[in-house]
Design brief:
The complex is a heterotrimer of chains A (330), B (277) and C (337). Chain A has an eight-stranded mixed β-sheet, sandwiched between helices. Helix content of chain A is 28%, strand content 22%. Chain A starts with 15 loop residues before the first strand and ends in a 15-residue tail after the last strand. In chain A, α2 crosses α3 and α3 crosses α5. Chain A is of the alpha/beta class. Chain B is an all-alpha fold and 277 residues long. Chain B is elongated. Chain C is mainly alpha-helical. Chain C is 77% helix and 0% strand. Chain C has 14 helices and no strands. In chain C, α11 packs parallel to α12 and α12 packs antiparallel against α13. The longest helix of chain C is centred in the C-terminal third of the chain and has 39 residues. Classes of the chains: A alpha/beta (330), B mainly alpha (277), C mainly alpha (337). Chains in contact: A-B, A-C, B-C. At the A-C interface, α2 of A face α10, α11 and α14 of C.
């Protein structure tokens, strides 16, 4: 599978390159193959969205990139290269900023905001504590946090949800990272705040030339923020390509059905027989074949290789050109 | 149950408890000298452990091994009575207090708090002494001081459960509060009550032993473990076995209940269950 | 903060009043007749009646209760029926001994229990966890009076390392009384020999007494840490690159100890109860031995006073616990405004 990188659409070296990554976790119910042969690239300064239903492996993928895989997780194969360096073997800190999903739960309630944000900088950014404070305050201004000077001395519960998310965005940018990883950073917020914060985030990363890896299941957010998209199903990449093309002309049967069912959000395929397989009981071959209306016998035997198609997209389905029956498109 | 047995520490507890129950049930047949519950043999007093007297003999020449076996019955009987009596008081109070936030609930919980603030052992001692000292009094006193723990447990569970969707649904269907409490809330609170009761068994055995030790529990010549340790104090350090073995018996039985309770709590509390990831 | 403390104290008052009434009822409703016990076996009915009249025991129970509450409210706990001395004085003499013992025991429980719990949680389901678990369950299972005797047997009688009983060697006398805490008073007086001696006397009783507390603190710290470790903010802090050590010790522990702090308050009741047996064994001249004496002599005035004092100490400790909690967790303080 690694050959797919040889003819990568971007000639420039990747900022982040995930190659054939598998993550397995031992559970009571057996071995869970959470990720199995995931590959994609993100060029410097680029933006890539990861979409998929819950349980498709998005969070585990993020945790692998951030070097915080849970206890008991194993990486039997694959690499995560960050600026050419394998960060699964030697995690980098400070150069990848992280914006967590839930601004309410991601700050420790018993410490002042400043003490928490400064701790990461103390370890991973140069300069004195005073410089760090000044830097954070200027970032607070950039993310339009009210009263930026006092924010460091407040406790998390003294901020609103939107303010906390701004705080966390500022924190993610604090060590001048080359890559920012965001885990559905706006789902906990109301719609108006969402749009504002997304625009802010996009603006800040673009202005600083930072790459952005953005996990979401909202196609609207996706098309607003991300140049490229990778669609995940059951721990594998189904589609990967420019966002506009994938959304307008989806190729993988899963993506096609998903968009037909839920033109705005990637959630469960309602009305489609079957469910997402449990991570401990993945079907052989293509993991989507039990639910796929155009599956052929070979689909249950061979894992489909990602195919490059004319617009630079890749699709992990050899029969992507086959029409889907009308019923399946709901 | 299977999850409990997969936990070695809890299994050890279960085995200890089962062992004690068997010993208690067949005590008169298991003890080599069952008549030593009452009879004394002054000629063979304070003999060290030997093949004949595994744990040695006490100051009246009685076989300590036999008396430890016979004492198991007492210990278990006291604990079961006290825990059951405490449950009979504490569980209904907790259900009622937890069901609604009104003055009844406030008053009940205040009373519970006050009882919790009473130094348990002192109260039990006082009652034990002021009424006629003896096992029954001690049991009454212990029940009177242990019920608040059940009230607390059931109160917390009831409050948690009454917020659950199914309780709302039942109330919507017009089920009466008492019906909901007894048929739906109580069974769901049962694991927590069971855990509390198991730990209460251990606690009660321990406190009853202290009462016995201080002379307000079981009276001689009862083969009570706490009483035996008290009697043994006069004969230290020469007759170390006299104090050691009855105390070890207390330790093992209480340990059994506590380990079991600990294991049950792990099973009952999904938050701290052996981690999945 | 001052207002908060005041409010907590005011909230504790009704409970204390309830405690006064409850203990009165419990102690007086039982069938024993204190007058008869006091008069002795050979007393004539006339003598008993006279004693009854002298202590107001002939009045209706509710009237006795009112008198009792009124006296307590004015700080008059009456005189010991047995010794005739004011109960307040007798208790004032003995309370410091118990406080010294329980405080040292509590300190030991916290200092040993919190790290043990932390280590166990960090090794969740591993060998350290199982050992700590066994220890903590065992600590709650061991009978204090028996452990005390075993420790005496080994360390005092066989090895002769530590004193068998009392607070200080008789030959040394007592340190000048300031707080009543021998350790503190000795140090204040510059008598290091006395302080050392007091410390030696404290070892066995304090070790015996600290064990149940140590066990529960270790358990609660363990579960608190485990619970906190699953929080999103821990994941976030790891992603932000906190050092694992700092994460475990400071970041997580501070959240985890909020549970433990509450536990310390509840423990105090258990400590006092434990002190009864431990004091009896080590001849520690504290409240525990006093209570046992009062009970054996049916000295109900003394008994009521002991229960009340213990209740007050318990209430004070719990107010302190709430204050500490508000200091550790800013959200608690926030709710009070």
């Amino acid at each position: 599978m690694s050959d797919m990188l040889a003819d990568s659409p971007e000639a420039a070296p990747s900022l982040l390159s995930v190659r054939d990554l598998a993550v397995h976790i031992r559970t009571d119910g057996g071995l869970a193959r959470i990720l199995d042969g995931v590959s994609f690239d993100l060029p410097p300064g680029g933006t890539l969205g990861i979409v998929g239903e819950s349980g498709c492996g998005k969070s585990t993928l993020l945790r692998a990139i951030l070097g915080i895989l849970p206890k008991g997780a194993r990486v039997p194969q694959g690499q995560v290269l960050f600026q050419g360096q394998d960060i699964l073997r030697a995690p980098v800190r400070g150069r990848i900023g992280f914006i967590p999903q839930d601004p309410y739960l991601s700050l420790n309630p018993v410490f002042r905001a400043g003490d928490q944000l400064l701790e990461g900088m103390r370890r991973h950014a140069s300069g004195s504590r005073d410089e760090h404070r000044r830097k954070l305050v200027s970032l607070f201004q950039a993310v339009q946090l009210p009263e930026p000077e006092n924010a460091l001395d407040k406790y998390p519960h003294q901020f609103s949800g939107g303010q906390r998310q701004r705080l966390l965005i500022a924190a993610a940018l604090a060590c001048d990272p080359d890559l920012v990883v965001a885990d559905e950073p706006t789902t906990a917020l109301d719609v108006t705040t969402q749009l504002e914060i997304l625009a802010l985030l996009r603006g800040l990363t673009a202005e600083r030339g930072m790459g952005l890896l953005f996990v979401t299941h909202d196609f609207g957010v996706l098309s607003a923020v991300c140049e490229d998209v990778a669609v995940l199903y059951a721990g594998r990449v189904a589609d990967w390509g420019p966002t506009g093309n994938v959304l307008a002309d989806p190729r993988h049967p899963y993506t096609r059905m998903l968009l037909a069912c839920h033109p705005d959000r990637a959630t469960d395929l309602v009305g489609i027989p079957g469910t997402v397989p449990a991570a401990t009981a993945q079907p052989p071959g293509c993991r989507f074949h039990p639910r796929c209306p155009i599956a052929r016998p070979v689909c249950s035997q061979a894992v489909p290789e990602p195919l490059r198609i004319f617009d630079g997209s890749r699709v992990a389905c050899p029969f992507h050109a086959d029409p889907l029956p009308e019923v399946a498109l709901g | 149950m299977r999850r409990l047995l997969r936990d070695p520490v809890a299994t050890l507890g279960l085995l200890l408890v089962l062992f004690a129950v068997v010993v208690a049930a067949f005590a008169p047949w298991l003890a080599p000298y069952p008549e030593d519950a009452f009879e004394s043999h002054l000629l063979q007093r304070l003999q060290p452990p030997s093949r004949e007297f595994l744990f040695g003999t006490d100051y009246l020449g009685r076989d300590i091994f036999s008396r430890v076996i016979l004492g198991t019955r007492n210990a278990l009987a006291v604990a079961v009575s006290v825990v059951v009596a405490s449950m009979l008081i504490g569980v209904p109070m907790g259900l009622v207090a937890g069901w609604r936030d009104n003055w009844v609930s406030d008053v009940l919980m205040r009373i519970t708090d006050i009882f919790l603030a009473v130094p348990q052992l002192i109260l039990a001692l006082a009652l034990g002494q002021l009424m006629s000292p003896g096992l029954t009094t001690a049991m009454a006193a212990l029940s009177l001081t242990y019920w608040p723990f059940f009230t607390r447990t059931v109160y917390a569970e009831t409050r948690r459960l009454r917020g659950a969707l199914f309780v709302d649904a039942l109330a919507g269907l017009g089920a009466s509060p008492s019906r909901i409490l007894l048929l739906h809330v109580l069974p769901n609170a049962a694991p927590a009550i069971l855990v509390r009761a198991t730990i209460g068994m251990g606690f009660t055995i321990l406190t009853a032993a202290i009462l016995g030790f201080l002379g307000v529990g079981a009276a001689p010549p009862s083969p009570d473990w706490g009483l035996a340790v008290a009697e043994a104090r006069q004969h230290l350090p020469e007759s170390w076995w006299f104090a050691t073995f009855p105390g070890l018996a207390i330790l093992l039985l209480v340990l059994g209940f506590n380990l079991l309770g600990d294991g049950l709590r792990d099973v009952a509390d999904p938050r701290l269950r052996r981690s999945r990831r | 903060m001052a207002r908060y403390v005041l409010r907590r104290i005011l909230l504790a008052l009704p409970a204390l009043l309830g405690l006064v009434l409850l203990t009165f009822v419990l102690v007086r409703v039982v069938p024993a007749d204190p007058a008869a016990m006091l008069a002795g076996d050979a007393a004539t009915p006339a003598q008993i009646a006279e004693i009854r009249a002298r202590y107001g025991l002939d009045q209706p129970l509710w009237q006795q209760a009112v008198t009792h509450v009124r006296q307590v409210l004015t700080g008059d706990l009456g005189s010991s029926i047995f010794s005739g001395r004011p109960v307040v004085e007798e208790i004032g003499f003995r309370l410091p001994a118990t406080l010294e013992l329980t405080f040292v025991a509590l300190l030991l429980s916290v200092v040993l229990g919190v790290p043990l719990g932390l280590l166990a949680a960090l090794d969740h389901n591993g060998p350290v966890d199982q050992i700590v678990r066994l220890l903590s369950v065992g600590g709650l299972a061991i009978a204090g009076f028996w452990l005390a005797i075993m420790l005496q047997l080994v360390f005092s009688m066989e090895l002769d390392l530590l004193p068998l009983r009392g607070r200080m060697d008789v030959a040394l006398g007592n340190p000048p009384r300031f707080s009543g805490l021998f350790l503190l008073d000795s140090l204040l007086a510059g008598r290091f020999d006395m302080a050392g001696n007091a410390l030696k006397h404290l070892v066995l009783p304090a070790v015996t007494l600290c064990l149940p507390g140590l066990a529960s603190i270790a358990r609660f710290t363990r579960s608190g840490v485990l619970e906190t470790l699953q929080k999103d903010f821990v994941l976030y802090a790891r992603a932000a690159g906190y050092s694992p050590f700092r994460l475990a010790t400071i970041y997580v522990l501070r959240n985890a100890v909020t549970v433990t702090v509450t536990q310390v308050g509840l423990l105090f009741g258990a400590l006092i109860s434990g002190a009864v047996a431990v004091e009896a064994i080590f001849d520690w001249p504290g409240l525990g031995t006093y209570a046992v004496q009062a009970i054996l002599a049916a000295d109900y005035k003394a008994l009521l006073a002991v229960t009340l004092v213990v209740g007050v100490v318990y209430a004070v400790v719990n107010v302190l616990v709430d204050v500490v909690q508000a200091l550790v967790d800013p959200r608690v303080a926030e709710q009070l405004k």
